[in-house]
Write a structure and sequence with these properties.
- The strands form three sheets. This protein has a four-stranded antiparallel β-sheet with strand order 2-1-5-6.
- The two termini are 13 Å apart.
- The chain has one helix at 51-54; strands spanning 2-8, 11-15, 20-24, 33-36, 38-43, 46-48, 59-68, 72-78, 83-89, 92-101.
- It has one helix and ten strands.
- A hairpin with a 4-residue loop joins strand 8 and strand 9.
- It has one domain (1-99).
- Helix content is 4%, strand content 63%.
Length: 102
């Protein structure tokens, strides 16, 4: 089984061909391709972690859609002062499909 650890959207993700990954918003529209930098490559029993060898590894992905995460409610309260603050946030996300690891 071939898989790679890639840096994607500020995190590290374990991916193999055909996987769907949701990560922080990346530039580009639906249908465009994206190349992710590999940090580790596992090809059966062979593990590659040397930077010189990983420079030749290309992990390509196709952008499927842009979406937004669930709403997070932020509330602040201070006792006896009448201070209340309520704020919401929805993270901008992108869903991608890994097309090849070469």
């Amino acid at each position: 089984m071939v898989y790679a650890i890639v840096r994607a959207g500020g995190r590290q993700e374990k991916v193999s061909v055909g996987d769907y990954v949701t990560l922080n918003r990346v530039p580009g529209g639906a249908g465009s391709t994206l190349e992710l930098p590999a940090l580790l490559l596992v090809d059966g029993e062979k593990v590659t972690s040397a930077a010189a060898e990983l420079a030749n590894v290309k992990v390509t992905a196709e952008i499927l859609e842009d979406l937004r995460g669930p709403k997070i409610v932020i509330q602040k309260f201070k006792n006896k002062t009448g201070y209340r603050k309520r704020q919401g946030h929805r993270q901008e996300l992108t869903k991608i499909k890994i097309t090849s690891i070469a």
